[in-house]
Amino acid sequence: MKTSIVQVISAAFILLWVYTAGSKLADFQSYKQEMSLQVFSPDFAAVLLYAIPFLEILCATLLLIKKTNKLGLVLSLLLMLVFTGYILLIISGYFPKTPCSCGGVIKAMGWKAHLVFNIFFLSASILSLFMTLKPEVRDKD
Predict the structure, then answer these.
(1) What is the C-alpha end-to-end distance of the chain, expressed in Å?
(2) Which locations, inside or outside the cell, does it occupy (predicted)?
(3) What confidence score (pLDDT) does residue 138 get?
């Protein structure tokens, strides 16, 4: 049962990362334009332009391979923490402008819906890591 839950969570993340990276790369000019409107410095935005889709594809790849699945879950957790933190800053009004450079239908979500979506995946990554890192409890007969 535990393995099945981790596999479902891993599969959901694979779909998420492939979809979001693919959406960004499929319409790269639009993604590039949205990244240039971010609050970050132009140099940092230029790094993020390539780093984000790369990390999303890397996560999906790591999750696909049994030996690197835990690493993929950890990287997924870290990415979701960063993305969720960014959304929390947006919702709190920290940034003067808030363009969304997300991919596909995720871009169409409002910020509060996006936060709920991210918290769901953040929770799923924590659950899966807890399940994979927790030692098996065995009967002592």
Answers:
(1) 23
(2) Membrane
(3) 44
